[in-house]
Sequence to fold (476 residues):
Amino acid sequence: MSIFEYNGSAVVAMVGKNCFAIASDRRLGVQLQTVATDFQRAFKIHDKLYIGLSGLATDAQTLYQRLVFRHKLYQLREERDMKPQTFASLVSALLYEKRFGPYFCQPVIAGLGDNDEPFICTMDCLGAKELAKDFVVSGTASESLYGACESMYKPGMEPEELFETISQALLASVDRDCLSGWGGYVLLVTPTEVQERVLKGRMD
Amino acid sequence: MAGAMDLPAKGGFSFDLCRRNAMLAEKGLKMPGFRKTGTTIVGLVFQDGVVLGADTRATEGPIVADKNCEKIHYMAPNIYCCGAGTAADTEAVTDMVSSQLQLHRYATGRESRVVTALTLLKSHLFSYQGHVSAALVLGGVDVTGPHLHTVYPHGSTDTLPFATMGSGSLAAMSVFESKYKEGLTREEGIQLVSDAICAGIFNDLGSGSNVDVCVITKGKTEYLRNHQLPNPRTYASSKGYSFTKGQTEVLSTKITQLKPKVEIAEGDAMEE
Fold:
């Protein structure tokens, strides 16, 4: 079994009209046994920047703690929040530093940049950035997520429609993956508010 | 052993997770596959300069991770570099050498030379003995004229009038070998490069999507992103999926209003 399949995960982010949504599953497993059904994979860096970390759960938590530390230092020095593009470069550098002994995580970064322009990107575990204008996926369910998002995504969706689309794409994909699922957690961010929702999904 | 102060590192690689990863590998957990760029990258020298070309597909195993990635990296205003191999390695090594070239330009006050970029790349790659898996096609025009080089992951280089690298290199080289001649014009050069990349896109499974071209001449560089789009997506349904509001079952909702950030304007100095 691959190291990425040890805990199981599914993370997806999508861009809408002046908003973005980031969603993850909630299962934490130890190979085929489920250990928790409320595991958090999408974390807040600041009000308009979120990061979802799929892959090995321990590395996801360690990496998140390191990133929050670096961002807090940045806030103290620069007296402002980090832009999403800058944060993506920071994550990429942190991952590439461990090129020959990597963190087993695939981050998904989503944020609102200048003029509340949505920004999403993903990376492999070495920090190779992939910017996208529509959606990014990562985790054990990534192949199903690619298919679901490719068919369900439409450009320029309003927040309500974006929420429905990302939820349906996530639930459809994790149903085809044994290692992820057990509900969903969706964060929808617009320039004025943040909506967090817990989805009801199949618990198998 | 403290390691408690996670000070920002001074640069270079850090090996502190290697022992843990080796232990995991011994326990039977397989190492992950990294994102590779599959790829067809080419370059050729024409009468006024250099033309570089690349496809735009990034793969993760058999899956296409990015349908439109950029493989032609900026090194200097007059030097560009196409990268094949592990995507993180090509991006990191080209960014690093690009920064070193900029510092060198500040120190010398002159335009960068292609051989400078070449030497910086080959010495870095050689010192990591091929473990930094970046195969590059480096091209540019400097005071000494147009130059085209290939750099292999172990640090060897070749200087050539036309070159191809990546999994689609054989398909592209066949096009070059039949049609290349010295003294090509700009249009002929761009056409030949596009044909070679298309050969890679259509015949190699690791390459696909669109053609990026970069034309470098003395004093001018043109980056033609998505010069050709031979693979449009034609099968999408015009209606698409539409989900009505409330179709997804939600267990709980929490809405937080974002407070607008207070702008601190610089006050004027008090008048005395």
Notes: The helical segments of chain B are 18-26, 87-108, 114-127, 169-179, 186-203. The first helix of chain B runs from residue 18 to 26. Chain B touches chain A through 53 residues (CB under 8 Å). The longest strand of chain B covers residues 134-142.
